[in-house]
Design goal:
Low-confidence stretches: 1-40, 333-351
Distance between the termini: 53 Å
Number of helices: 8
Number of strands: 31
Helix content: 10-25%
Mean pLDDT: 89
Shape: globular
Bound molecules: CU-O-CU linkage, copper (II) ion
Length: 542
């Protein structure tokens, strides 16, 4: 197979799909479906006085997404037990949500009630919030249908666009595809002072991809290939709606953009070539606005945009799009990899007609409908980041290496699979210590499939990190073209909890480990990869 040659995916499938399926056996699926012990859920404690007490019932529902038959979905039904009812905002007509809005310093009690079908144990992870390990939604805390789990924690993080989603091992991808996810928006005094667009001009945008059948139902049947490569849909939904066009006025908006897709990576840009003005990343505002011609947004990541339509006239239309990029699914090395050629040639595309990773797509339409005299201007500075210094790290001389590899058609972290309770010696950190981790996306020269790997959005629970640097290995020139198609779009200026690591790339991150002792997971946020076992525990020791 010549290097970088474009292969007809469906053509390859016809030739080799059956062989591939036969070769792959049933081990991954079997592992995903094995029984897990049911946790005993904690109950509300009398001495915890919450500012917001909320119940989230994970339950089947129906919502009209496409014209015709409503789509069967799973939703979090929120109800406020005590506290400000405005802190919990349902999104009418969407499976997503509710949006939870709290201020830094507030205490929340959230009771997760599992009303999902048989076999769907669940637990919620508060993605990006640094909460004690017992409140973090570790997969071993998953509760069976009919049971509940009570979370009690104080929100100590800076203002930011956080989110929540299920985290039961082996079932996360399914539950997210079926609709379970919501935003958790934190505000604080620092961010209030900045003077950003607020209220209806502060717009959450959750991007996801789905596949619908002829009867408008979600199609998701994770097979070997989906487990290996990740699920890709052929319909873009924004806030759970297809073909969304946002009516706007001639003024500035704040867009909080979350990639809530299982696997699809976006390269965000404006259709008219206007650069993106970026004001925030995963864990809140950055120090000062930056501009990018395009910005990468991988599953789990958030970006906040300053979107100013004051230069437009009523009637103008533009689009938020995803631009073409390559290399995220790896490449076939010149020297072989028969399965690799087949993988990229046919199997993924075979599941659906979903466009492959890196295909240009329209995401959101924007129509200027109203003249407005609002004169908000982009602030020159936003909020202080209080960054760490690399020399504060206890391991500055020998950073911890987190090596992503593939073995026997499964993704591994340092050669290991997820184990509910195992913590290796090299997965122990000091509580509150500052560490550098090297996230290394390695090559897999001896593997039949995908020898050069895939892009992995890497997420670490319990921490916020800053990106110290990135480097691309040079011994495989195959990596360069794909990398060049995305690298100008990384937004590494702020605090993050999820970072895209391209094939052949090492991303170096700096973080303060959880202050309280406990065991957290770190994993790939390609949800099929995580479910398949691309996840590990790490323990903060007091
Ligand atoms: Cu958003 Cu462990 O996940
Ligand atoms: Cu991955």
């Amino acid at each position: 197979m010549p290097l970088n040659s474009k292969i007809d995916r469906r053509g390859f499938l016809r030739i080799s799909g059956a062989t591939a399926a036969a070769l792959m056996g049933g081990s991954i699926l079997a592992a995903c479906q094995s029984a897990r012990p049911v946790a005993i859920s904690p109950t509300a404690s009398a001495d915890f006085v919450p500012d917001l007490d909320l119940t989230l019932k994970a339950t089947p529902s129906e919502v009209a997404i496409l014209p015709g038959t409503p789509t069967k979905v799973w939703v979090y039904q929120g109800s406020v037990v005590s506290g400000d009812p405005a802190s919990v905002q349902a999104i009418p007509g969407s499976y997503l949500g509710p949006i939870i809005r709290v201020r830094t310093g507030q205490k929340v009690r959230i009771t997760l009630a599992n009303d999902l079908p048989a076999g769907q144990e669940t637990i919620i992870h508060w993605h990006g919030l640094r909460v004690p390990a017992a409140m973090d939604g570790h997969p071993r805390d998953a509760v069976a249908p009919g049971q509940q789990f009570v979370y009690e924690f104080a929100v100590t993080d800076r203002a930011g666009t956080y989110w929540f989603h299920p985290h039961p091992h082996g079932l996360t991808a399914t539950q997210v595809v079926n609709g379970l996810a919501g935003l958790f928006v934190v505000s604080d005094d620092d961010s209030d002072k900045v003077g950003l667009p607020a209220g209806e001009f502060d717009v959450p945008l959750v991007i996801q991809d789905r596949v619908f059948d002829a009867d408008n139902q979600f199609v998701y049947s994770p097979d070997m290939m989906t487990a290996m490569m990740g699920f890709l849909g052929d319909r873009i939904l924004i806030n759970g709606q297809p073909d969304l066009t946002l009516p706007v006025a001639t003024r500035a908006y704040r867009f909080r953009v979350l990639n809530g897709s299982n696997s699809r990576i976006f390269k965000l840009a404006w259709s008219d070539g206007t650069p993106l003005t970026i004001i925030g990343t995963d864990a809140g505002l950055i120090a000062a606005p930056v501009t990018r011609d395009h910005a990468m947004l991988a599953p789990g990541e958030r970006l906040e945009l300053w979107a100013d339509f004051s230069g437009h006239v009523v009637g103008d239309e533009l689009k938020l799009i995803s631009q073409a990029f390559s290399g995220a699914e790896g490449l076939v090395p010149a020297s072989g990899g028969a399965m690799g050629g087949m993988m990229h040639g046919g199997m993924m595309g075979s599941m659906t007609d979903a466009p492959e990773l890196g295909t240009p797509q329209d995401l959101l339409g924007v129509r200027v409908e109203r003249q407005e005299a609002e004169t908000l201007t982009l602030p020159a500075t936003l909020t202080p980041l209080n960054l760490l210094r690399a020399d504060e790290a206890v391991n500055a001389a020998t950073p911890r290496r987190i090596v992503i590899t593939q073995k026997n058609m499964a993704w591994k972290i340092n050669g290991r699979d997820f184990d509910m309770d195992a913590v290796a010696d090299d997965e122990r950190v000091g509580a509150g210590s500052v560490e550098i981790w090297d996230l290394v996306n390695d090559v897999n020269p001896n593997e039949m499939m995908d020898p050069l790997g895939m892009a992995h959005p890497f997420h670490i629970h319990g921490v916020h990190f800053q990106v110290l640097g990135r480097s691309l290995r040079t011994d495989y020139p195959e990596f360069a073209p794909g990398y060049e198609s995305v690298s100008a779009g990384f937004v590494d200026e702020g605090w993050k909890d999820t970072v895209l690591v391209m094939p052949g790339e090492t991303v170096q991150v700096l973080m303060r480990c959880p202050e309280q002792a406990g065991t957290f997971v770190y994993h790939c946020h390609n949800l099929e990869h995580a479910d398949q076992g691309m996840m590990r525990n790490y323990t903060a020791d007091a």
